[in-house]
Amino acid sequence: MKNPLQDKLSKSYFIENKKSKIFQININKAKEFYGRLIDSPFYNKERGLWNEEFSQRSGANYFYSTDQLLGVIALASIGENNKAKEFYCNIIDSPFYDRKEGLWGQFQGYKKLLLYPTRYSTDQLLGVIALASIGENNKAKEFYERIVSSSLYDKEVKFFNHSMDENQKIIQIAKDTADQLFGVIALTICKNNK
After folding, report:
1. Would the pTM of this model clear 0.90, i.e. be above it?
2. Which of 11, 15, 47, 66 lies 20 to 30 angstroms, CA to CA, from 118?
3. Which class in CATH covers the domain with range 4-192?
4. Computed from CA positions of residues 14, 15, 17, 18, in that sequence, does the dihedral angle turn out positive or negative?
5. For the range 141-147, what are the long-range contacts, defined as Cβ-Cβ under 8 Å and sequence gap of 24 or more?
6. Is the CB of residue 52 less than 8 Å from the CB of residue 62?
């Protein structure tokens, strides 16, 4: 099965330029690195979730949607499409995702899984990229349109706001650079998959 994310990346200049060894992708090394991550404290095998961070001082950790969605994208990028789809299905059926709103929540506590009411642009845009990475192009486009029609998108200045609450009230109108760049990637993925 063709990996949609690898296909998109392979069309990029830095991969097509085979003369430059600096930017060559080595899937085997990436798979090896991913395997080390899975076997490390970054991944909570008991929960099947990515920990926020690895700290020698704290045994407890927290789980964030950002890390879980990046986990989907990472699996897809190394050609593990079935595992990426399975992981995506697991997290979308968890408290990370609010099915009523159709948006990603941000945080789950370590001991008790809960949905934090703040909705961050970063997570929504990573959701678009994750969907596209597992070949769900139509769902990715629909999700992108849902984000742009929400309060997360400032229709006047045409940039993504930082965050909103579950009632679509803007919490922080600051606009992060990362959100705008994720927006470029998400929009490119949606436009290239017509």
Report:
1. no
2. 47
3. mainly alpha
4. positive
5. 141/190, 141/193, 143/102, 144/186, 144/187, 144/190, 146/102, 146/103, 147/103, 147/121
6. yes
